[in-house]
Write a structure and sequence with these properties.
Layout lengths: L1 E2 L12 E7 L13 H18 L14 E2 L2 E8 L8 E11 L3 E9 L5 E10 L1 E2 L8 E2 L4 H6 L3
Antiparallel strand pairs: 1-2, 2-5, 3-8, 4-7, 5-6, 6-7, 8-9
Length: 151
């Protein structure tokens, strides 16, 4: 599930990506509620889906040994209520802030009634790597990527 803005809206409306996750037994802690790292795994998956659904994936970002990509520099999540096995959550994701080479992605986890179970953000940079991790350098976000994501 995703929604693309019209060309007139694209300059001001962020691209919104939605997908559903089902809380599985292995996503939970011994108390039977979602163990917090599960949310961060779902957030990372949602970012990938956001870029893919917007058609903003670049050739250098998809391989196992990428040269150009979007490394994570910060992440946080607020848990509004406990979720349990069998529950279905809809993850809504969009870019909420663009910088020159950095951007913030906002993620909202909604239950079947539309209530918020959790909210998270990631800050990522557009970067290139020419060798090992010490060669990582930020780059301006490409214009076509920014446009596709509503920036």
């Amino acid at each position: 599930m995703s929604s693309a803005p019209s060309s007139a809206e694209a300059a001001t409306t962020p691209f919104l990506s939605r997908h559903e996750v089902t809380v599985e037994w292995g996503d939970c802690d011994p108390a039977g509620i979602v163990y917090y790292p599960s949310y961060f795994r779902w957030i990372d998956q949602a970012t990938h889906r956001l870029f893919h659904n917007a058609g903003a994936m670049r050739e250098g970002t998809t391989g196992g040994r990428w040269t150009e990509g979007i490394p994570l520099v910060a992440a946080e999540c607020s848990f509004r209520r406990a979720s349990q096995p069998g529950e279905k959550l809809v993850v809504e994701s969009h870019i909420s802030r663009f910088g020159r080479s950095s951007f913030t992605i906002s993620h909202v986890f909604r239950d079947g009634a539309g209530g918020i179970a959790a909210e998270g953000t990631e800050t990522r940079i557009w970067a290139r790597k020419e060798g090992d991790a010490s060669s990582l350098r930020s780059l301006p976000i490409p214009a076509d990527v920014r446009r596709r994501l509503g920036g």
